[in-house]
Amino acid sequence: MSYDIVSADAHILEPKDIWSTWLPAKYHDKAPKLVKDVDGGDAWLHAGAAEPDPIGLVSTPGMAWDNFRWTGVTYEDARAGCYNGAERLKDMDIDGVDAEVLFAPQRTIGHFLGDDDDDFVLAGVDAYNNFLAEEFCAPDPNRLIAMAQSRHSAPTPPSTIC
User: Rounded to whole angstroms, how far apart are CA atoms 2 and 7?
Assistant: First the structure.
């Protein structure tokens, strides 16, 4: 496939059902929870967080810049292309974008990577990667180019640098 315009820093908004659909049932109680933010918008509550993380600014495509806000945004307000691959392709066609390199919503992946239970970490990373490959990118993996999350931790940096 030939590409003229590639968006190399695109992100997705995890769909409301990502963890109930893709995470093994035995981990559902530890999964991020969809709750309301202080202004009635949708937000994800992560382990150890005092406040939920609103979807606001990560769901701005298609909104006029003066409507951007951090709180008070619901999934119904967000453009479906934020969390649905088939709809994302339609948005890309409107914008004249041939392909997008897609990165994870780090706030959600951080929920898993920050846990001490290695099996839970791997289950969360696998759930996200499986959703990305089998659902979000499935409509056209040549245009929706997934950057999977690593299941391995980074090597420990040396204590001294020569």
Answer: 14
SS3 assignment for the chain: CCCCCEEEEEECCCCCCHHHHHCCHHHHHHCCEEEECCCCCEEEECCCCCCCEECHHHHCCCCCHHHCCCCCCCCCCCCHHHCCHHHHHHHHHHHCCCEEEEECCHHHHHHHHCCCCHHHHHHHHHHHHHHHHHHHCCCCCCCEEECCCCCCCCCCCCCCCC
Alpha-carbon separation of residue 161 from 33, 154, 156, 157, 158 (angstroms) = 41, 17, 13, 9, 7
pTM: 0.85
pLDDT at 157: 43
- What are phi and psi for residue 28, nearest 5 degrees? -60, -35
